[in-house]
């Protein structure tokens, strides 16, 4: 049952009668053989960016005290509780460096371990090649740079709390962490780790207001100030046309939208209909210009429009968005993977009404009038907000624990397989001397095959 914040309850209560009273009948019943926009599949990003190179002068790192080094060692020894693996962070080498009394060696080994561990806690351990169709932008490296973080940890003598503070703040991550402690089988442990990882691939703080679709759950939620104020069934991409994971900013909601058909769907049939039976195409609401390879087709608002009465505007290169559909019957299915990649949204009038009132400053009356008019109208959001199209196969149950969902697109296995391999390289390398060429921030120029004099292996700081 959706939780409605008292602050928005009056507006939400008005949306249903106003919207349905004024809505044309086609908003509720229509043909079921239409198709919405197909996803524009982008190639996976399979290369990890090369680490940022800092010089010792730029880093200005304080020395590691024995107490700070031991605090780091203890954290590493218990990092399995975080879904990570202690051996990744050289606990034996750190123990030996502490025992050696060699300050230079201790500084090097401890710095290496801290930076690699902080990278994995902040950004995830999984290499990009195992993150199938994951295109979310994670800004944590900008908001939480690691060199100042290390500087603070050593100056404040607070290594453990500094590292623990990198955990995602969402309560679902805490549930997964608790479940890992009581997991009964290695398979259960692995699936929990996979989903803890996915939380780390996202921004640590999702924001005050956002929309989130969890593809394997077939659900879309509207969240405001940490409270779920609406939950809608979702239809997502078929395994052959999977919905990718991304987090575009929503900029507006369009009522009674037109639909510009992609070339793939023109080729599937409507192109032939236009060529051989244009009267039939017009009855279905299609208008067009050009012919053959130059044919451009737009479906006008109406009973058969594939986008129904609503489209959430969320610009992204994948052509993915949330929208209504005239094919309401699909929402009755338990497993709702039927689309070409976009996300169909149940009770779209309610959803778009919340968007218009909460984020665009419209009144329920204004919204109802627009729906009734049948005219294409855009409500611009006063403050754009993120839409997270996520992929969690372990989610909260209704008993305070977690439950496993079917892995719709088979995306868990590559992450589990990556656990046996070296993880992502540390986000920061420390060089005793400046490298001859400092990698730029352009992805194409920052491939992991680049070498610097200080980087013998991923995770090595280069301090000797």
Automatic annotation (TrEMBL):
Domain L,D-TPase catalytic: 209-367
Protein name listed in UniProt: L,D-transpeptidase catalytic domain
Matches recorded under CDD domains: YkuD_like
UniProt feature, compositional bias: Low complexity: 439-453
PANTHER family per the UniProt record, alphabetical: BLR7131 PROTEIN, L,D-TRANSPEPTIDASE HI_1667-RELATED
Active site: 323, 342
Pfam families on file: Scaffold, YkuD
Keyword Signal: yes
Signal peptide (from-to): 1-29
Region Disordered: start-end pairs: 428-464
Keywords per UniProt: Cell shape, Cell wall biogenesis/degradation, Peptidoglycan synthesis, Signal, Transferase
Pathway: Cell wall biogenesis; peptidoglycan biosynthesis
Family: Belongs to the YkuD family.
InterPro entries documented for this protein: LD-transpeptidase_YkuD-like, LD_TPept_cat_dom, LD_TPept_scaffold_dom, Transpep_catalytic_dom
Single Gene Ontology BP annotation: peptidoglycan biosynthetic process
Source superkingdom: Bacteria
Molecular function terms, GO-annotated: carboxypeptidase activity; transferase activity
Gene3D superfamilies listed in its UniProt record: L,D-transpeptidase catalytic domain-like
């Amino acid at each position: 049952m959706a939780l409605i914040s008292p602050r928005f309850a009056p507006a939400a209560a008005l949306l249903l009668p106003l919207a349905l009273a004024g809505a044309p009948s086609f908003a509720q019943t229509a043909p079921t053989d239409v198709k919405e926009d197909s996803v524009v599949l982008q190639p996976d990003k399979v290369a990890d960016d090369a680490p940022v190179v800092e010089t010792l002068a730029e880093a200005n790192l304080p020395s590691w005290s024995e107490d700070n080094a031991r605090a780091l060692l203890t954290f590493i020894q218990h990092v399995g509780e975080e879904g990570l693996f202690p051996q990744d962070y050289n606990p034996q080498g750190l123990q030996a460096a502490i025992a050696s009394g060699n300050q230079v060696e201790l500084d090097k080994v401890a710095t290496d371990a801290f930076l690699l561990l902080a990278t994995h806690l902040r950004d995830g351990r999984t290499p990009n090649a195992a993150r199938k169709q994951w295109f979310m932008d994670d800004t944590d490296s900008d908001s939480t740079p690691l060199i100042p973080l290390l500087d603070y940890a050593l100056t404040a003598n607070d290594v453990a709390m500094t590292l623990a503070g990198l955990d995602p703040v969402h309560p679902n991550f805490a549930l997964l962490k608790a479940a890992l402690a009581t997991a009964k089988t290695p398979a259960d442990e692995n699936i929990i780790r996979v989903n803890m990882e996915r939380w780390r691939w996202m921004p640590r703080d999702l924001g005050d207001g956002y929309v989130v679709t969890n593809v394997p759950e077939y659900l879309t939620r509207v969240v405001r100030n940490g409270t779920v104020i609406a939950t809608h069934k979702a239809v997502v991409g078929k395994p052959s046309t999977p919905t990718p994971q991304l987090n575009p900013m929503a900029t507006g909601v369009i009522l009674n939208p037109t639909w510009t058909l992609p070339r793939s769907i023109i080729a599937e049939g409507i192109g032939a209909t236009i060529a051989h039976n244009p009267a039939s195409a017009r009855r279905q609401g299609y208008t067009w210009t050009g012919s053959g390879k130059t044919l451009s087709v737009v479906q006008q608002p109406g009973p058969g429009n594939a986008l129904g009465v609503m489209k959430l505007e969320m610009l992204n290169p994948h052509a993915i968005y949330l929208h209504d559909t005239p094919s309401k019957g699909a929402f009755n299915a338990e497993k709702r993977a039927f689309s070409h990649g976009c996300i169909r949204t149940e009770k779209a009038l309610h959803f778009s009404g919340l968007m218009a009132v909460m984020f665009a400053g419209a009144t329920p009356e204004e919204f109802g009038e627009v729906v009734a008019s049948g005219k294409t109208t855009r409500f611009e959001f006063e403050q754009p907000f993120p839409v997270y199209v996520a992929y969690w196969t372990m989610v909260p149950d209704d008993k305070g624990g977690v439950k496993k969902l079917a892995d719709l697109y088979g995306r868990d296995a590559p992450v589990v397989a990556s656990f046996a391999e070296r993880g992502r390289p540390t986000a920061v390398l420390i060089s005793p001397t400046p490298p001859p060429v400092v990698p730029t921030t352009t992805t194409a120029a920052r491939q992991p095959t680049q070498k610097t004099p200080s980087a013998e292996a991923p995770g090595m700081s280069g301090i000797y």
